Amino acid sequence: xxGPDSIETLYDAHAGALFxxxxxxxxxxxxxxxxxxxxFHRLARQPMPATVRDARGxxxxxxxxxxxxxxxxxxxxxxxxxQWSKEPLELFATHAxxxxxxxxxxxxxxxxxxxxxxxxxxxxxxxEGLTFEAIARLLDIPPNTAASRYRYGIxxxxxxxxxxxxxxR
Amino acid sequence: xxxxxxxxDSDIPDxxxxxxxxxxxxxxxxxxxxxxxxxxxxxxxxxDWLAFLRVLWSRHPWAIRGLAAAWTLxxxxxxxxxxxxxxxxxxxxxxxxxxxxxxxxxRAELMATALxxxxxxxxxxxxxxxxxxxxxxxxxxxPTAFPTNRMS
Lengths: 169, 152
Fold this sequence. Notes:
The structure holds 2 protein chains of 2 kinds.
Chain A: H1 7-26, H2 29-45, H3 55-77, H4 81-85, H5 98-113, H6 116-126, H7 132-139, H8 143-168
Chain B: H1 15-21, H2 30-37, H3 49-59, H4 61-80, H5 89-92, H6 97-120
Helix pairs in contact in B: 3-4
């Protein structure tokens, strides 16, 4: 998918992933909405370059930078970013099973406790299915760094969610 | 039963990672699509000044006439006022003959007044000077007894 795609096509194909990534990074639905709007308004003004081969990667990279800028501004503006990161967040789709629902809530909360760099790598690996090479390119970090951040993040999630995981197995 | 050991150095996910990856992410709110795509909608055309002036002329002709009169006045003032910079304003100022005479007369009177004042306040000899009051003169007499620490 490349430059000539219309914005509607790009939205329908990638908005879900972009919104979830922005939501997981910023931990604020209002910020995620703003970032997604900002992203597509930018696309309307300046379309994606025709040379881009991986539209999803290009958009994720772009919204990653927007999210980091937003987080930094927010942290400068007020010092309650940590508090925001612990607010319950509808990061995952709702589920009818209460156990599964509890596990998803716990996972969303545990993700909020991860540092941003680990959280972004975990998100991109688990829910975007990117390789460490792809994550490294997207975040401008070495592949080994991406792998180690993922390992630290996933181990923290594992330790944190083990009781819940054992309970619902 | 424990969770499987981490193999997260590899790109191949283990059971725990697969379990997490299967969880569906929340979808963006439905209203967000419209908000995001709004920027692509055709923007309103530029303001039509001609139509605006036509409506103004038909409904408020006095406003147009007032604007035209003000514009004419401003243009006329602009065209008739010589553009002289402040630095050169003095050299370009044309003084009326009466004004010059008046200034010369006032200058002469002022000079005469100054000369009179100088004459009246010129230093005079001691004989002619009026005696000064004792209280006006400074007391040059040394005090007869200063308090000292000396033991006498």
